[in-house]
Fold:
Amino acid sequence: MSRLSPLLRSVLTISLLAAAGDSFANDAQQLYKQHCAECHAENRLGAIGPALLPQNLTRLKPKAAYSVIENSRPAVQMPPFKGVLNAQQIQSLVDLIYTPLETIPRWGMEQIEASRITHHKPQSLPDKPLFDADIENLFMVVELGDHHATLLDGDRFVPIHRFPTRFALHGGPKWSEGGRYIYFASRDGWISKFDAFNLTYTAEVRAGINTRNLAVSHDGRYILVANYLPHTLTLLDARDLRPIRVIDVKDDQGNSSRVSAVYTADPRSSFVVALKDIPEVWEINYEDQPPAGFSGWVHDYREESSDAESERFPIRRIAVKGYLDDFFLTQSYDQVVGTSRGLTKDAGFTGQVVDLDLKRAVAQVALPGMPHLSSAITWQLNGKTILATPNIRDSAVTIIDMENWEVIRQIPTEGPGFFMRSHEQSPYAWVDVFFGPNKDLMHVIDKQSLEIVKTLRPAPGKTSAHVEFTKDGRFALVSIWEMDGALVVYDANTLEEVKRLPMKKPSGKYNVHNKLTRSSGTSH
Ligand code: DHE
Structure:
């Protein structure tokens, strides 16, 4: 809703509306135009406020949206509209924002380029950090509560810099170039490049209307953004976030698809993409001279490219057995483990393993508990590599032997979990209990016995979630996922608390070393 002298303007507006009679005052479109359009844009695609489309609001129930309009929410510029709009008017606005647009506006090269903001030109800022800390042990902590991020010194556990982010970041921000830059993605499609040495954003661009996540090529040159809306992938030049290409995600029949997620497969110099509405996995190569075996153009998207004649970034399409909502890339980056969330236990669905070289599914995996595979980790057990994943529906951690893809253990937990973490130097794997009455618990699992050896309750009654280790694996950082939350630092061996830093609903935290070395104990 509007931020410009809002109350005064709203009071004036409401008097005018009242004079015009009830039917006019309750016209949702008119109300939207008067009170909301300035910040959320007339077409509801968002401006300084977030997009107000049902696709972008899936995580906010209409009742909660009503309350936000009535009372506002902490740490935002939007005013409360209680006393300005009556209940019927607020309800009509709620109904409006949960109504899909008749047509999804175009979000192609032109619109993306027009949204691009350059804060600092590439190579215009000093190469020396403004602070003294081990760059490899820096953490970026996302604070969802008031849409900020904190750069943290991972040796001293002291914040170096706290700064605002775009509204509702989601997915892990991605470090590149040895920890100098980090890229954030917001659910509304904003990609922001932050220079951690100079503590400033350098560029921003809106790569989609509703975005899942982003991946950065291992050489730091390209960003690929996975979108739900429109059904596209947006390829950006990492230097200045200039759009290079918008790839329509379609099958041979022209059916389009949302993109579930994209990750980088370093040794293959390619991005791996899972699709939500088409049973295919895509691999997009970003080498200057792509290897044979990629099919080149999938669709004629050359018009949507800044290098129209270039045949770079060819795509290899692999047919799979179902739609992939969530997936895990193996440490060797040649196999994808994926599941579909729409299918239930009763449908007898199992996850599948897709081999990127053989270009087909090579195994099925029994994963009925709705695993959160983007949070799965691996380690060695009795000479074998095992994969461990929390489950969003079942109260168990599933352990899979990656040689034969059999489930070797279901470790019962006190509730379904969301995030799981370990470190090569740690004997333990940590998993949260994100859902249900025991959401304040955090299990610590012995990686060899596969038993829970300790269950921590960092803040009774408050959700504790998402762990990340320091570079050396000696400390584990846990989020107290509440508005008056905290980051709790544990000694990863004694499991004793070392320090607590107040934070506003800290969600994920991302360590430079662990991410850039693709530690098997953390998400990539
Ligand atoms: Fe996430 C990562 C999908 C809901 C917080 N989440 C991811 C990734 C995917 C994903 C594919 C990996 C992307 C990456 O890191 O590059 N998340 C989904 C969903 O499909 C789901 C269940 C429904 C949805 O609304 O999209 C979902 N996720 C949530 C939340 O409700 C969470 C808890 C709060 C929020 O921010 O919206 C949430 N997801 C996160 C976080 C990560 C993440 C913090 C990064 C984890 C990491 O350590 O890398």
Remarks:
- The helical segments are 6-20, 22-25, 28-35, 37-40, 62-71, 87-97, 109-115, 512-516.
